[in-house]
Design brief:
Layout: H1 2-28, H2 30-54, H3 61-85, H4 89-102, H5 107-138, H6 143-153, H7 158-170, H8 175-186, H9 189-204, H10 208-257, H11 259-267, H12 269-293
Helix pairs in contact: 2-3, 2-5, 3-4, 5-6, 5-10, 6-7, 7-8, 8-9, 9-10, 10-11, 10-12, 11-12
Length: 297
């Protein structure tokens, strides 16, 4: 009982000592620390709000700020508590500190993924949209009326984007400028080709219906080629990710069969150094494999 009591007392003493050190450091550097937190919070908040505007998500800035603070500090505290109560205070400090520093970046790839998915969906809807606009122009409708058909007949996101173009045009923005704003928002080659052709043909004259049919065929072939490339790339990405995860599965297997040998890696300083080196190599290998496999259009 005395040994257990001393162990618990020693562990609590280390936790208290770490708390005192952290409190001393934060009090001495409170100004620069709060400046860093403000920069990370509001910088990432503005990025999230910008992407939410693109995605047509309505969210209050205060909620984003609170969510970022809760995610970062809450995640760091959770990691520190988990490792501390399992008897590894050093790992708790290391992983909690790393999460506190890099946890702000967690929403960034998520938002970028949502934006990329919306752009791909818009691109796949362009063929139907161009065919519908071409049919409307053949029936004698004007270009804004053809855009209105897209808004009424097709689902989001293409309906939302063309509705935004029409709203801007109704508020006094010229149609060319509204289409240029659409091109800047989407940042796609197909949209640039679409908006540029409309601008040229409106100035010089020409058959928009034939141009839309041509663009539609080009986009259809491009999408078909991209889908073919994506199927090959996905298989290679799966192989690369499996190789990156293999060391962690081996560590889990050894930990379940011989926990004592694995425990040294998490408690001994030399073992921690080896673990950090291996994790760094795994991430570095994954980064290069990702760069090699992915093909930019």
């Amino acid at each position: 009982m005395d040994v257990i009591f001393l162990k618990v007392l020693g562990r609590n003493g280390v936790i208290i000592l770490i708390g005192i050190i952290v409190f001393y450091f934060t009090s001495r550097n409170s100004e620069s620390l709060f400046e860093w937190i403000e920069q990370k919070t509001f910088g990432m908040r503005d990025f999230i709000l910008e992407k939410c505007e693109f995605l047509f998500y309505k969210i209050e800035p205060e909620k984003v700020t609170y969510a970022l603070l809760g995610l970062t500090f809450g995640g760091a505290l959770l990691l520190f508590s988990l490792f501390t109560f399992t008897g590894s205070i050093t790992l708790g400090v290391i992983f909690g500190g790393l999460f506190l520093v890099f946890g702000w970046q967690i929403p960034k790839p998520i938002m970028n993924k949502l934006v990329e998915r919306r752009k791909r969906k818009f691109q796949s809807q362009m063929v139907d949209g161009l065919n519908l606009m071409s049919s409307g122009l053949r029936a004698g409708l004007s270009l804004p009326q053809a855009f209105g058909m897209v808004v009424e007949e097709l689902p989001d996101p293409i309906a939302q984007e063309f509705n935004l173009v029409l709203q801007q045009n109704r508020l006094g923005v010229s149609l060319d400028e509204s289409l240029d704003n659409l091109n800047k928002r989407m940042g796609l080659i197909d949209v640039e080709m679409f908006t540029t052709s409309i601008g040229i043909l409106r100035e010089t004259g020409g058959n928009l219906t034939e141009t839309f049919d041509t663009i539609s065929e080009i986009i259809r072939e491009r999408v078909r080629l991209e889908q073919k490339i994506t199927s090959y790339v996905s298989a290679a990405l799966f192989q690369g990710r499996a190789l990156c995860l293999m060391p962690f599965f081996l560590l889990l297997a050894y930990g379940s069969t011989d926990p004592k040998s694995v425990k040294l890696m998490f408690t001994n300083p030399f073992g921690l150094a080896i673990l950090a080196f291996v994790v760094g190599l795994v991430f570095l290998g994954g980064f290069f494999m990702n760069k090699i496999v992915k093909i930019k259009a």
